[in-house]
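The material for today's practical consists of a large collection of protein records. A record pairs a protein's sequence with a compact description of its fold. Instead of coordinates, the fold is spelled out as a row of discrete tokens. We will come back to this pairing of sequence and fold again and again. Here is such a record, shown just as it appears in the course material.
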Amino acid sequence: MPPPRSVSSLSRSSSSQRLSDSTYRKRVLSRAGIKVDANLPMEVQNQINIILQTPPVDTSTLESLALKLQSDSNELIATQAGEEEWTSLLQDIVKALKSTTIHCARSRDWRAEIKPTVHQSSIPRSSVPQKPAYDQGEARESESSQSNIISGDIEDPSTHGTDLDRPAKSLSITSGKSLINPISLENPRPNISVGLSGIALAENLQSRQVNDAKYLLIDLQDNRQLISDPGVTPLSLHFPFLVFEVKSASTGSNLYQAQNQSAVGGASAIEILRALYKLCEGHIPNTSARNAPSTACQFLTFSVTTEGPVCELWVHFWNELDESYCMGNIDIWRFTHKSKASNFISNLSSILNWGSTTFRDRVVQQLILFCSQIIPSAS
């Protein structure tokens, strides 16, 4: 069973109720440089093709899991199942496919500091028109949007789900020229987080004669040099490369909401990878070197969004040109069709295989590079 939901996690879907889902994407995600439904560059598409064309290790297992996914989906539809039931089904699938070098965690809060930075307006309130023109879609939000402007009064903290949603006292200006209230991304809380096992990573580093390999990632995290485990409480997984955002129409949630949440989760996973490369080399890697993968392909992660039996697969990558976190669609399925369920299982298996091999090897290589810079005896 997943751990009890904290106050902050319970408010993840409601912390931005002042804005509609579409306005949150337009105003908040865009300010963080997050682009949903971005076009895939050829280099990213080629990398995806390589990952997904990896032949499955055990076709019989894939076939049995596809049948399970199809039959269980039909049962969940008949019972009007909610997010928890759909999450349990997908978690069972992941556990059956993953290797021991991969760990998954269910419904756990991620740390706020790994989220992308959101651009904040520095325009004084006195410069904002008193009666701004809203389009029809936002007219109904005019009243709630006013709560995003800080006045001289500070709202009661008990009315907010998380500290990040509370107006900052330092921005309350008595001169009457107060600034726009800080805009914040929702904290990620994927229904399923998938990353590298901390134990397996330590064993891999130890086999490469890295000093204190058992404690390397723990020390880096405790010293706040590198946050590789995204959990508010430790998840025992590092460098997440796949997240699931699960919704159910029977409980009033939808794919659009799942996309917004996976966009932040995927971007946060990219931030962890970027921090790793910055830590190891002091800068983003030089992709002009021969045979070096592009920055977009080095900072590659995936997400799955679902609404009941409808499922989307997304890739997340870093666009160095405009410094944006891009989220591009790979495919969409409906689990009630056997062929669709089978194709999804095959793609998921390929991504998990990539995570436990190519992705892991790149992470280990960077950690060894870091150790060689600070510990001469490391190799």
